[in-house]
């Protein structure tokens, strides 16, 4: 059951692209950190069996005793699944490689496409007071990704500034339309973020031009550059905003956070006073 009418529910956003290596997890972690830095309360849901978001936020594998997989199987695990991170205002539901078996274990469940919806939209979630829930999706258009879209208010798409980027995007858009038609009529596109952008590279400039020509205002004005600090930060288990606050990568994600908040000003989750 969708609780869209309940204004106290967090806004849920899937960060997805079926292509790997496009900056999806990097965007999930750093947008979440930027929102938390802005004073909001944020939850990341690590829906990728690789568990990179969990690792990138310093959650040791030994601490992941209750994961998103457990929550999909039984929503009552919510309290045990939510872990605090070292960043004030930022929590995570972690993942482990066990999630890779979800496709096989969940496919026979008649509610297989709405299990994450039931887990994240349950009334007990309200008490946590999250403003936004960001779902870091796996690099595939799988049952897990469909679950994320069914549970979400919107989809945010990192788009790598490289050849064939827009071709892969078209398949993702078709999946969004199908989910909107069959399971979540309110799902919309939050926006498209150009990642790994190199201002000196003609290909990056061409991808940006093509994206803006075809998708218009859906494309964020802020572009995320190629940046060594962005690549290094996960190995230190922290967002680039904490690893090197003055780096170009950190400044870009702070700017993206502000553009994101500006876009959401009219539709931000409302809380009781």
Can you walk through the features of this model?
By secondary structure, the chain is α/β, with parallel strands linked by helices. The protein has a single domain (11-264), classed as Rossmann fold, CATH 3.40.50. The chain is built from 12 helices and 7 strands. Strands 3-4-2-5-1-6-7 form a 7-stranded mixed sheet, sandwiched between helices. Helix 8 links the parallel strand 6 (154-160) and strand 7 (188-195). Helix 1 crosses helix 12. The protein is globular and about 50 Å long. The two termini are 26 Å apart. Residues 1-6 and 268-273 have low confidence and may be disordered.
SSE arrangement:
Layout: E1 11-15, H1 24-37, E2 42-46, H2 52-56, H3 68-73, H4 78-81, E3 83-84, E4 90-93, H5 102-106, H6 115-120, E5 132-136, H7 143-151, E6 154-160, H8 165-182, E7 188-195, H9 202-215, H10 228-232, H11 240-243, H12 248-264
Parallel strand pairs: 1-5, 1-6, 2-4, 2-5, 6-7
Antiparallel strand pairs: 3-4
């Amino acid at each position: 059951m969708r609780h869209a009418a309940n204004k106290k529910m967090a806004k849920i956003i899937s960060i997805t692209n079926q292509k790997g290596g496009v900056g999806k997890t990097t965007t999930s972690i750093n947008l979440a950190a930027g929102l938390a830095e802005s004073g909001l309360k944020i939850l990341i849901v690590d829906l990728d069996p690789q568990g990179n978001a969990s690792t990138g936020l310093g959650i040791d594998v030994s601490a992941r005793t209750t994961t998103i997989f457990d929550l999909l199987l039984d929503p009552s695990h919510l309290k045990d699944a939510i872990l605090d991170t070292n960043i004030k205002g930022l929590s995570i539901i972690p993942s482990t490689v066990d999630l890779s078996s979800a496709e096989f274990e969940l496919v026979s469940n008649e509610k297989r496409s709405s299990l994450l919806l039931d887990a994240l939209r349950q009334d007990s979630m309200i008490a946590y007071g999250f403003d936004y829930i960001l779902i870091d999706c796996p690099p595939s258009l799988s049952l897990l990704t469909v679950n994320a879209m069914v549970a979400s208010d919107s989809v945010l798409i990192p788009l790598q500034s490289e050849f064939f980027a827009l071709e892969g995007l078209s398949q993702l858009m078709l999946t969004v339309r199908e989910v909107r038609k069959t399971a979540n009529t309110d799902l919309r596109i939050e926006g498209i973020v150009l990642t790994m952008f190199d201002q000196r590279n003609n290909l990056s400039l061409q991808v940006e031009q093509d994206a803006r020509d075809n998708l218009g205002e859906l494309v964020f004005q802020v572009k995320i550059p190629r940046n060594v600090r962005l690549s290094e930060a996960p190995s230190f288990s922290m967002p680039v905003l904490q690893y090197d606050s003055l780096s170009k990568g950190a400044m870009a994600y702070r700017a993206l956070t502000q553009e994101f908040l500006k876009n959401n000003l009219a539709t931000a989750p409302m809380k009781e006073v």
